[in-house]
Amino acid sequence: DVNLDDKDEL
Amino acid sequence: MNVFRLLGDISHLLAIIILLLKIWKTRSCAGISGRSQVLFAVVYTARYLDLFTSYISAYNSIMKLVFLAASYGTIYLMFIKFKASYDHNHDTFRIEFLILPCVLLSLLINHEFSPLEILWTFSIYLESVAILPQLFMVSKTGEAESITSHYLFALGSYRALYILNWIYRYYAESHYDVIAIVAGIVQTVLYCDFFYLYITKGIYGQ
Known about the structure:
- The complex is a heterodimer.
- Chain A has no helix or strand.
- Chain A is low in regular secondary structure.
- The N and C termini of chain A lie far apart (about 20 Å).
- By secondary structure, chain B is mainly alpha-helical.
- In chain B, about 75% of the residues lie in helices and about 0% in strands.
- Chains A and B meet through loops of A and helix 1, helix 3 and helix 5 of B.
């Protein structure tokens, strides 16, 4: 599951 | 990071710089939709709040600050400095019909029901339709200055390149985010008509 710290994209 | 995402970010940065230069050099925001620019500022504000909570990399933080500064700078130029050149009559798309559905959808379909995640999801949904007022304005005026069409081409290309990035990441890192991918495809599809015009005959000066 994608969570916050995976958000490495702009 | 991969070449598609880097090219996408560069294309995005280029679009924003082209727009700022166009307004600053011509001292006019004729043909530019202020409503779309407001939506972009909302998108970046809602998405980049994690600037203060999670550090990814210097590149990530710097680019977020640049996008935020450029989007608010564009709004300042359009609504304050060069207010007289803002084309109210042709910039009439009802953005509440974009914002409200995105708010509802982000509350219904998200990865996690937490404030930052909902705001991120809202910003992803809103970004996919944020260009509509601008495309609507171009269709209404029937033309766009060449610099404006270059802006739109760079802006549309950025998310198209991100789709290639998501394909790459799916196969190379088995990482994917359905919400970002679906919204990114919608966003890119909205530009198709413009891409066709831009590539076939350059929509300016019709």
